[in-house]
Queue: 2 jobs
Job 1
Amino acid sequence: MKVVLLSGGVGGARFADGLARLVRADDLAIIVNTGDDFVHWGLHVAPDLDTVMYTLAELSDDVRGWGLADERFRALAMVERYGGEAWFQLGDRDLATHLMRTEALRAGQTLSQVTARLARALGIGPAVVPMADGLRPTWIETEGHGVLPFQHWFVARRAAPVVRGVRFFGPAAPAPAVIPAIDAADVVLIAPSNPWVSIDPILALDGVCEALARRLVVAVSPIVHGRAIKGPLAGMIESLAGEPASAAAIARHYGPLLGGFVLAEGDGAPGRIRAVDIVMADRAGRVRLAGEVLSFAESLL
Ligand code: FO1
């Protein structure tokens, strides 16, 4: 099967890692949210792309979920000493990625081109595709703190301000490989990522929903028994959808786009829904979940 995965950061990266062990590299493309990208210390930082790349290359810090394992933060300490911005923790080895990316972008390469080159250098087989080559930042409308750029809300303010809306700025053109990858896919999987800030930025690009409407789309719930596996999603469902966090709220959010939905056992009824253990506690868990989602998708084709 030719598989496309729409992915955000940690949850998507772990699911991608499971898929990459089951699907031939040539048959798997991972389209990654770049709405969280921002310029920090003059460098283009792409957190979700890097989380996916580091996880697939087995270089990621498994406890934090983002950044590299065995990381040190000596450059950060020096920046702090100079009185620079130290609220976003860029590790010493992680800095190399941002330096290489920024240098290539300044030399005229696209984000798609430099990402493909970095992923190849890390020995990653599947295509890692940024959702857009242009800057398309996500901003968060908050209660009482105005409209904040994503990382200022998520990291600097620890996702504490209540979310009233999510906005995407900049050109809505998808990267050149996005629509052709979807058109060529037998199934498009939506990772257990945050629908509002990780997946919607991809869905909001020109032509993506139209392309998805022609394909079988299967999403994996990021909510298990009413709680988010990671991050601020549960509170966002309450403030944005006006209902308690549940797998059903996620399915309702994606609506008619979905041809199938995978959720945790005990979280919903069978049908075009498959209930499995969706917590990826370790690598075996990632591969097991990816296998269950693939066989479910196959049964729907
Ligand atoms: N998340 C944090 O909560 N605090 C950080 O200081 C932080 C630094 C960081 C550096 C590089 C990187 O690739 C990711 C980083 N993240 C950090 C994670 C990131 O902000 C979020 O996980 C994603 O943007 C949400 O998907």
Job 2
Amino acid sequence: MGAEDRLPVNVAEYEARARARMDPASFDYYAGGAGDERTLSENVLAWRRWNLRPRVLAGVGAVSTATDVLGSRLAFPVIVAPTALHRLACDDGECATARACSAVGTVHVVSTVASRTLEDIAASADGPRWLQLYVPREREHTRALIRRAEACGVSAFVLTVDTPRLGRRERDLRNDFQLPAGVEPVHFPPLDPAAGDPALGHFARYANLNLDPALDWSIVAWLRAETRLPLVLKGVLTAEDARLAAEHGVDAVVVSNHGGRQLDGVVPTAVALPEVVAAASDRMAVLVDGGIRRGVDVLVALALGATAVMVGRPVLWGLAADGEQGARRVLELLRDEIEHAMALSGKRSIAEIGLDLVQPARV
Ligand code: FNR
Ligand code: LAC
């Protein structure tokens, strides 16, 4: 049996398969980060700077990975992060992702930069489903998107706060990354080809025109007045901002550096997580994403105080390798790795995972 015939056995093998199957510029858009890609690689390494402290004879005949986040039931504590343009990976795009999430029992966070409409996504699979928001200058646009999302059964909104403008991704500049024919951010207004900074590639120009760099904390009150659904802020890396988020009454934050795609050199999320948890986890849920590739990374995140994690690229690799089935299998691999690591470290439920499970690696 050749390597191409058997199913990948981990996320890294899905990445290799995605690389072999995708158009190189689209792969680079998914895989790449800002600047020297320091934060991109440090995100992955930082989870591995923790070791587990397993307990024995803990009666792990039955292990449950289930948990709840903001009223949504998760079969395991991994949420699909909002990522743009799933049709770069497979034709069904976000509709395939929605079916994969529904099959495994987790939340799909749909990006504002989706390449399938919210209505088509909602028709493809039952939720739970949240919508990530980028807020352009014309607030009417966001108001209309919120109404559409509510009509589609979305159960929370995720405001991304680390992107007043797009990060400088050198792979995309080098490739002059263009959207392939037929793949579009369907929730953005159509691009005027003459608008925006001509020094940037087509996609970056398009994205920047749909971001409001002047956003400040007053947007939280504006969103609160627009919707009664839970509000999550994604992209918080400091205790200061976590406290402000709690004071503004948000329901959760995601400790995130956008997968290393925004400001290169910012702190890896595994390092930022403890200070955010200390500042605010008594007042709101704390989620985390960035560089999570293994079930044991998820155990470390939960031990450090996260309620659940999000994964971005792993799901894109699954989609690119094998469409809906690939995305589903990536999520199942993570679920099985979490269950296995819980059994071998003596944890029967998510609630039993605490700070005593980890210690800094000293090798
Ligand atoms: C993203 N991310 C992102 N975040 C967001 O809020 N809105 C978006 O549209 C996108 N788009 C996007 C596209 C691609 C190709 C990637 C890789 C990422 C960031 C994403 O939600 C998440 O924070 C990171 O992907 C987490 O890091 P990992 O799991 O990819 O390492
Ligand atoms: C990205 C944007 C769209 O990371 O969030 O490419």
